[in-house]
Amino acid sequence: MSRLTALWLALATLPAWSGEADVLDVKVLPGSNGWNFQVSVRHDDQGWGHYADAWEILTPDGRLVARRVLYHPHVEEQPFTRSLSHVQVPKGVEAVVIRAHDKVHGYGGKTVTLPWPPAQH
């Protein structure tokens, strides 16, 4: 077997070619009991074994504010937007960081950082 063929076979058996989950956009709206976050995520979901399975809202020092679990792959819906309501951001926080997670790579894709509290128009 040639080296090229061996390399091709090795790469073909990898779990997926998709990269990390990226946060593309975040909208924040006031709600009756906290804040409503609408987060758009892009990930090359490959099926049940490799998909974006959550996104989180963190303080800049890494404290978890809220987590939205995603229970199924979005193979045919990319990017996709999901909401989380009733989010309580602790007093004194000056920014929030939103990051996404996927089942294979974990965290590491593009994040969005927003000044806090958000400007309301």
- According to DSSP, the number of beta strands is 7
Net shape? globular
- What count of domains describes the coordinates? 1
Major β-sheet annotation: 4 strands, antiparallel
The CATH topology is Immunoglobulin-like
Gap between N and C termini: 65 Å
CATH top level class name: Mainly Beta
Task: Note poorly predicted spans.
Answer: 4-17
Which architecture does the CATH hierarchy give at level 2? Sandwich
Q: N-to-C SSE series?
A: HEEEEEEE
Helix percentage: under 10%
Give the DSSP E fraction (strand runs of 2 or more residues).
35-45%
Q: Any idea what the radius of gyration is?
A: 17 Å
**What class would the helix/strand composition place it in?**
mainly beta
Commentary on this structure:
This protein is mainly β. It has one domain (17-115): Sandwich (Immunoglobulin-like), CATH 2.60.40. The chain is built from one helix and seven strands; from the N terminus they run αβββββββ. The protein has one helix at 3-12; strands at residues 22-31, 34-42, 52-58, 64-69, 80-87, 95-102, 112-115. The protein has a four-stranded antiparallel β-sheet with strand order 4-3-6-7, with no helix packed on it. A three-stranded antiparallel β-sheet has the order 1-2-5, with no helix packed on it. A hairpin with a 2-residue loop joins β1 (22-31) and β2. The protein is globular.
